[in-house]
């Protein structure tokens, strides 16, 4: 990595630009990271509002607030906003902030591309929100009642809002692919001298794998929705059975993207855990090499088991057997990661600051979500659980602890580094407990609802499901409102608080902790030497 | 194009080469998601039988 020498030494004398130009034209990885995180925070609240409306509607049987199409429009909107607007940009924000600082690089490899990757997002979000609101205007057509999977033939019949959604998905995909290219190039070409791949921080490894996954699967989704657009407007019949097409082809294309997407959401948070747990257990990460191997195995197997989402569509016995065995096999490397975290905690001198509370919560609750995933992987069982509230409970137990709590752990862990202030620990812990308790009250009862036969994506339900739905909705209000506390803590920490040291946490290790808190506008202008 | 002041020309070229390679990989996956290849397989299969 001798090529990382500087061409001139003045880089570190540059001051941050002032005003709106700083943000609009930014090529600085820290500023762009901040933009990503703020964008994700806004989308988290938008997606959360739609979730709370869904749960308000389900508080009682019968139709209270939302007509069936609006209910399903909200279901679609909630999923897309949370996945593409909330979790992915938040993880990209962490990557932008931390990767250059962790590998001793002055910035991302392609800084202008970095700016473009972010600024595509607000345009995409506008299209996404328009797809939700367009049906409310005269001539706006029908609502998107398909769910985030936008399966044909229903998605061929939806009004013009589907076109807005397709273009939004295209824009989001372009943004993700450009950001992924930048991250891979940065990680492979910009590491400090002496930092071999096997010395790279685990968060960087998780992002390297995630970025490759994104490059491989996002274009397939883009291809699928492009064909959908052609079927809708240009007379083709890729998915239209009446014209000789096959709607199941879309399901295969969608889930070829959709299943690796789960790992795209999970892996960055696993990377955060691999820093938080050793820091607060005051022990090195157990099994670094096996973690890297497990991650590669998860990504590889995860790419070839997509059709477990479509067992009920009528595939051959051989095909479903293959997808079932492949899916269950993933639990081996995922289990290895979890055991590595437990082994890191084992006999550690642990303290339970907020990031560590989230980390321990993730290990427990994500494992629970993984176990219900093994249940769903089994074909005969899945025939019963398919499209029930059990599936809703399962994927929220995977994605909330596995992805979102990991991001929360990362935000609390690195907030002192970013802002130069320690956050209020009491409020942080209060946020953790209200969040986790609210989450479990919301989603745990949904397992029972699903097992008892309550279908998902239907606005009304049988009287026999009332009690668990009431509990779930009360939990959702606690859970949703608890995020206001997160907002307050973040604003309070940005505005002031106890000064954070360079190494904000006693057990924290890595290049990023050798920089000031907050770090200078330009960091690592002279590459560090790694022994 | 102006080179960012922390990159040498050599590193800049190396970065761009890799970036274009990755963009090509993404393009390959995009193109092959269109099911034209099922027709190619069918043609190849038919010719093999003949």
Describe this entry's structure for a reader:
Chain A has 531 residues and is mainly α. Chain A has one domain: Cytochrome c oxidase-like, subunit I domain (Cytochrome C Oxidase, Chain A), CATH 1.20.210.10. Helix content of chain A is 67%, strand content 0%. Chain A has 15 helices and no strands. Chain B is mostly helical. Chain B has one domain. The longest helix of chain B is centred in the middle third of the chain and has 25 residues. Classes of the chains: A mainly alpha (531), B mainly alpha (50).
Q: Uncertain segments of chain B of ≥5 residues (pLDDT<50)?
A: none
Query: What is the strand content of chain A?
Result: under 5%
Which radius of gyration of chain A do the C-alpha atoms yield? 23 Å
What percentage of residues of chain A falls in helices of 4 or more residues? 55-70%
CATH class of chain A: Mainly Alpha
Q: What is the end-to-end distance of chain B?
A: 56 Å
Radius of gyration of chain B: 20 Å
Tell me the overall shape of chain B. rod-shaped
Number of strands of chain B: 0
Could you state the oligomeric state of the chains shown? heterodimer
Content of β-strand of chain B: under 5%
Please report the number of helical segments of chain A.
15
Our count of helices of chain B gives: 2
CATH superfamily of chain A: Cytochrome c oxidase-like, subunit I domain
Structure in a nutshell:
The complex is a heterodimer of chains A (531) and B (50). With 531 residues, chain A is mainly α. Chain A contains 15 helices and no strands.
List keywords for this structure.
heterodimer; A: 531 residues; mainly alpha; Cytochrome C Oxidase, Chain A; 67% helix; B: 50 residues; 78% helix
């Amino acid at each position: 990595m001798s090529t990382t020498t500087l061409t001139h030494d003045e880089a570190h004398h540059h001051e941050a630009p002032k005003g709106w130009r700083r943000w609009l034209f930014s090529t600085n990885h820290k500023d762009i990271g901040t933009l990503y995180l703020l964008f994700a925070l806004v989308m988290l609240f938008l997606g959360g509002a739609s979730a709370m409306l869904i749960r308000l509607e389900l508080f009682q049987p019968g139709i209270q607030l939302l007509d069936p199409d609006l209910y399903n429009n909200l279901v679609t909107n909630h999923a897309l906003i949370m996945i593409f607007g909330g979790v992915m940009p938040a993880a990209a924000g962490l990557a932008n902030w931390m990767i250059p600082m962790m590998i001793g690089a002055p910035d991302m490899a392609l800084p202008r591309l970095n700016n473009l990757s972010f600024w595509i997002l607000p345009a995409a979000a506008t299209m996404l929100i328009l797809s939700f609101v367009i049906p409310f205007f005269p001539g706006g057509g029908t609502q998107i009642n398909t769910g985030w999977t936008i399966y044909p033939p229903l998605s061929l019949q939806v009004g013009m809002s589907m076109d807005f959604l397709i273009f939004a998905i295209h824009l989001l995909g372009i943004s993700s692919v450009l950001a992924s290219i930048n991250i891979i190039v940065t990680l492979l070409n910009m590491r400090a001298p002496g930092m071999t791949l096997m010395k790279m921080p685990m968060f960087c490894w998780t992002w390297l794998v995630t970025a490759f996954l994104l490059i491989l699967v996002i274009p397939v989704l883009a291809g699928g929705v492009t064909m959908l657009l052609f079927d809708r407007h240009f007379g083709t019949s890729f998915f239209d059975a009446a014209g000789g097409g096959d709607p199941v082809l879309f399901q295969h294309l969608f889930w070829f993207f959709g299943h690796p997407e789960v790992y795209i959401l999970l892996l960055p948070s696993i990377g955060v855990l691999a820093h938080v747990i050793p820091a607060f257990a005051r022990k090195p990460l157990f099994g670094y090499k096996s973690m890297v191997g497990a991650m590669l195995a998860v990504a590889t197997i995860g790419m070839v088991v997509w059709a477990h989402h479509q067992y009920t569509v009528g595939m051959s016995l051989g095909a479903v057997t293959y997808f079932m065995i492949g899916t269950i096999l993933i639990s081996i490397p995922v289990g290895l990661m979890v055991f590595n975290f437990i082994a890191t905690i084992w006999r550690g001198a642990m303290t339970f600051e907020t990031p560590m509370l989230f980390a321990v919560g993730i290990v427990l609750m994500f494992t629970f979500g993984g176990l219900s995933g093994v249940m769903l992987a089994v074909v005969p069982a899945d025939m019963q659980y398919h499209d029930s509230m059990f599936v809703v409970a399962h994927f929220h137990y995977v994605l909330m602890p596995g992805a979102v709590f990991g991001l929360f752990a990362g935000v609390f862990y690195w907030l002192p580094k970013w802002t130069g202030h320690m956050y209020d620990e009491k409020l942080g812990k209060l946020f953790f407990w209200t969040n986790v308790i609210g989450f479990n009250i919301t989603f745990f009862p949904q397992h029972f609802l699903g097992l008892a036969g309550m279908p998902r994506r239907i606005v009304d339900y049988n009287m026999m499901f009332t009690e668990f739905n009431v509990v779930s909705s009360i939990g959702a209000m606690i859970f949703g409102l608890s995020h206001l506390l997160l907002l307050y803590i973040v604003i309070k920490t940005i505005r002031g608080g106890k000064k954070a040291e360079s190494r904000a946490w006693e057990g924290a290790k890595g290049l990023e902790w050798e920089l000031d808190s907050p770090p200078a506008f330009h960091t690592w202008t002279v590459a560090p030497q790694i022994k | 194009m102006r080179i960012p002041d922390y990159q040498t020309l050599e590193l800049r070229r190396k970065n761009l080469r890799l970036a274009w390679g990755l963009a090509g990989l993404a393009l390959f996956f995009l193109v092959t998601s269109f099911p034209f290849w099922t027709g190619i397989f069918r043609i190849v299969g038919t010719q093999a039988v003949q």
